[in-house]
Amino acid sequence: MSEVTAPDKDLERKFQAKFAIVRRVSSTLVEQALRSDESGGKPDLALAREQHDKYISCLRNLNIDVHEFDSDDRLPDCCFVEDVAVCHDGIALISRPGHPTRREEVDVVRRVLSFDLGQKVVDMAEVEGATLDGGDVLFTGKEFFVGLSKRTNMKGALFLADTFSNYPVSPIKLSDGSLHLKSFMSMAAPEVIAVGSSKEAQKALKEIECKATFTYRKITLPDDGAANCVYVNKTLIHCSHEDFPESVKKFEELFGHTLNRIEMPNSEFKKVDGALTCRSILIQKKPKA
Ligand code: CIR
């Protein structure tokens, strides 16, 4: 990968957030949150809450006005708010999450996006059979890639393309074992895609490279889980040493002190397939009245 140079201001703006939506961790997360397997053991609820508090404080320290909502024990996965809305340029697409147990999560988020944050809300519920999880949506600031997965179907991807019609949108077929596109890739900085080393991650990256309208640099990490990071307000929030030591070394090598970086623990959420991006919805600003 070549040297990382400063992106233009318009692009950097796409990665700025004034507001965020987060939701507290349900006590039912431990037993009832969806998970692809039990290999990581059960999350420790107290530690998960501590890790989420740290994440929320980090967003606040980056001058983001965080709207924090109570958990709902009927919705064990409700802290993974990313999956229920995609927000860019003053438009909030409210999704229909792919898994039926997650559908009710949209209600609280729709309300705050529309009434408190003045976003133009577009609701996927209007399209019969369309499903989409925000975890499948990779926005590069210039275009979208949408993972077609067990949770997101072509109707969902087409609805997103209609909603954000100013941008190119490319569907990316995921391998059967993958949960979301962003389970193994995300933006580490403007024009820089972080990607894991697994066969699934590399296959998706190849398809992205074939379909992309713009070019990107990439940083390949030893761990898929580490390739989910949050770049916001000129800061990269990435995995911790404890979770993925080898991948942290890579971030250090590449960015050193040229970029503000914050390590964020995610061990308890990882046990139920949660990553860093999924714990917030970031919103650029309120549109002008
Ligand atoms: C689920 O399977 O739906 C949750 N247990 C985890 C969702 C993680 N979402 C995300 O990374 N965007």
CATH class type: Alpha Beta
CATH architecture: 5-stranded Propeller
Most strands sheet: 3 strands, mixed
CATH fold name, please? L-arginine/glycine Amidinotransferase, Chain A
Outline, from the CA principal axes?
globular
User: Which percent bin holds the helix content?
Assistant: 25-40%
Strand content: 15-25%
Question: Could you state the order of secondary-structure elements as H and E?
Answer: HEHHEEEHEEEHEEEHEEEHEHE
Instruction: Give, in spatial order, the strands making up the sheet with the most strands.
Output: 2-1-15
Distance between the termini: 43 Å
DSSP, total strands? 15
The distinct ligands, each listed once, are: citrulline
Average pLDDT level: 96
At the fourth level of CATH, the homologous superfamily is: L-arginine/glycine Amidinotransferase, Chain A
Description:
With 289 residues, this protein is α/β, with parallel strands linked by helices. The protein has a single domain, classed as L-arginine/glycine Amidinotransferase, Chain A, CATH 3.75.10. It is 26% helix and 22% strand. The chain contains 8 helices and 15 strands. It has helices spanning 9-13, 29-32, 45-61, 106-116, 154-163, 199-211, 245-255, 267-270; strands at 19-23, 65-69, 85-88, 91-94, 120-123, 137-139, 144-148, 169-173, 185-189, 192-195, 217-220, 230-232, 235-239, 260-264, 281-283. The chain has a 3-stranded mixed sheet with strand order 2-1-15, sandwiched between helices. A 3-stranded mixed sheet has the order 3-4-5, covered by helices on one side. The radius of gyration is 17 Å and the shape is globular. The structure holds citrulline (CIR). Citrulline binds at residues 33-35, 77, 80, 82-83, 99, 102, 134-135, 180, 272-275, 278.
